[in-house]
Amino acid sequence: MGKVIPFLMFQDGKAEEAMNFYTSIIDDSEIISIVRYGANESGDEGTVMQATFSLKGQEFMCIDSNVKHQFSFTPSFSIYITCDTEEEINNLYEKLIVDGQALMPIGDYGFSKKFGWLNDRFGVSWQLNFLNKY
Predict the structure, then answer these.
(1) Quick count: other Cβ atoms within 10 Å of Cβ 92?
(2) Is-above-0.90 flag for pTM?
């Protein structure tokens, strides 16, 4: 068996925009590869046929779907990030929530003094946790 890699399917040609956004706000992250649809291929020319990026060493794959589906992302699958400082969790939350939706605004939920859960503008769900000690 090879790697286990989370796979994100974007609609409306948003895969590259999402990768650029995520890798710009999370340190030690990069776009590894992008293969684009060419002329006369099954997807819109220039959109992402397949791409790989990493966030803090965790690899992800993504595509721009050329088929319109009746489904999108759901919060039942989320990207979980442990933050080292309050500044880090606040900064990430502020950037990810723009044009997104708060599921659990940053707060003390008992299991953590500082935790937030949101859907970003692309519909991807994120859980952010500041690992402080009580």
Answers:
(1) 19
(2) yes
